[in-house]
Amino acid sequence: MVKQARIRNAAAIETGQVDVRQGSVEDLCFGDNTFDKALAVNSMQVWTDALAGLREVRRVLKPAATLALGFTAYSGQSKASLTELLATAGFATSQVLEKENWFCVLASK
User: Fold this and answer.
1) Whole-model pTM above 0.90?
2) Helix (H/G/I), strand (E/B), else coil: 25
3) Which residue of 10, 18, 19, 58 shows the fewest CB atoms closer than 10 Å?
4) Is 4 among the domain residues?
5) CATH number, position 65
6) Domain span at 87
């Protein structure tokens, strides 16, 4: 995935707009309150510990920042209890948006 992302984003990487790194969501190498937004697509279902990962993403998000978790019909992710999981991770609000067999969960710190 890192190789594909670097190829697809080569121009943005060249200009410094994008930085592609490989790592673990449970141990992000960024300081607290670093990002305004975070996006994960078709990945949460393979995180080792979803709750720990969500807590870590929340840590690196600025106050009032937004997290978007997207899932295609092929992800295998269930939308059941995702909002509860986000609340347990410390997110203040979350909502599920659906279109056909796809869905996205938006959460705010």
Assistant:
1) no
2) coil
3) 19
4) no
5) 3.40.50.150
6) 32-108
